[in-house]
Amino acid sequence: MRLLVVAAVTVHCLAADLTDMVLIPAGEFTMGRTKLTADDKTNMRPHVLLDDRPPRRVKLDGFWLGIREVTNERYAAFVQATGHRAPYHWQGGKIPDGTEKLPIYNVDWQDAAAYCAWTGKRLPTEAEWERAARGGKEGLDYPWGDKPDSKQARFNVQNGPAAAGQYAPNDFGLYDMAGNVAEWTADWFDRDYYTTDHVLNPKGPPAGRYKAIRGGAWSDSAPRLKVFFRNWVRPSQRTPNIGFRCACAANAAP
Hints:
By secondary structure, the protein is of the alpha+beta class. The protein is built from 4 helices and 11 strands. It has one domain: Alpha-Beta Complex (paralog of FGE (formylglycine-generating enzyme)), CATH 3.90.1580.10. The protein has a 4-stranded mixed sheet with strand order 9-8-6-10. A 3-stranded antiparallel sheet has the order 2-5-11, with helices on one face. The chain has a two-stranded antiparallel ribbon with strand order 1-7. The N and C termini lie far apart (43 Å).
C-alpha cells in the first residue's frame, strides 16, 4: 500500500471569516482514556484497541473551531465558487431538496481539507478536536457525562444525520462533538502515537496510510462517541457517516 506524506501546516485566522467559530483557549488537558477496563487489567484487550492509551497531559495554544459541522449549503457555495467535485449522492451536483442544513458527508479527506483552505482555515488536529469535545471537562466519557444519552446526540440510528446543531452544545458552545457525523482530523493515524513525547501542540505522525476521525456518527454505537475514542479510515474514503468542521490558530479577533 502506498505511504502518503503531507507536511503539517499551521493556518492562521488573519483573513478568515470567524462567523460561527468558537475560540478554544490555550491550556492543558489530559488526552486519552484514563479508565481501565476489565480487559485492560487481564491483558486481553487487543493491541489495536489500546490506541487511546496511555493518557498524557497535552498543552495547546488557543485555536478557533467551527461551532457546527460544515453543512451542505456551505459546501455547495464552495463547489459553485471553485468547481470542486460535489458529493456523489448530489444528483447533477445539486443539494437534495430539504437537506441544506444537514452536515456534509460523502467527502474524503482532501475534499474536507480543500474546503477548509478555501475559507482560510484547516482541519483540527486530533489533540485540538479532543480538547474541544471535552468542553474543558476532565475524565468524562462523553461531552456531557459518563453515560450515553440519546437526548444529547444522534447515534445508533439507521436513517442518517440530523441538521447540524439540533442537540445541546457542550461547555465550549460546540454542537455535535459526539454523533451525527464522524469528523475528519488533520492527523495521520498511528496506534502507538500516544507513547511518544509529542505533548506540545501535537500534530500527529508525519506520514501514514490512514487519517484519524473522531466523534462517532449517527450509525455508530455509543462507545464510538466517547471523547477519547480514535478511529481511522483511508483518506480517499467517502462515506455517508463522515463529515468535518474547520479550525485555525487563535491570532485574530472576530
